[in-house]
Amino acid sequence: MVATGTRLTYRRQCRYNTKSNMQRILHTPGGKLVYQSIQKKAKGPACGDCGKALIGLPRLRPMEYRRLKNREKRVSRAYGGSRCAHCVRNRVVRAFLIEEQKCVKQVLADKLSQVKKEKEPASKKSKK
Q1: Are residue 57 and residue 24 in the same domain, yes or no?
Q2: Which pTM does this prediction carry?
Q3: Per-residue pLDDT band at 46 (split at 50, 70, 90)
Q4: Which of 11, 39, 64, 118 could form a disulfide linkage to 60, CB 3.0–4.6 angstroms apart?
Q5: Are 10 and 21 found together in one domain?
């Protein structure tokens, strides 16, 4: 435990207890107590669709993300760095079902046009 009677001064310019100026008391080898600055905890990347945290990506501050390589910023999958696997699966299934629905509509339209073509000549012949 750290003695509470000792007075410590901030080691940086900001002299207020703000979120970005958090400090930790540290014992030096010489027996002095000093403040050590603490970095803010990162929220981490989240899925753009459902909002859950993305698995396999580090939780870093924005400046530290810029220093990472591309392979460390994303997962090797479609929508790797922005969507979770479950949402990607939903997107693929939804796209497949929409394409299937278009095919079914096309087949029904062809059948309907064939039925109309068969009825037209029969009605023309009866008029003559």
Answers
A1: no
A2: 0.65
A3: very high
A4: 64
A5: yes
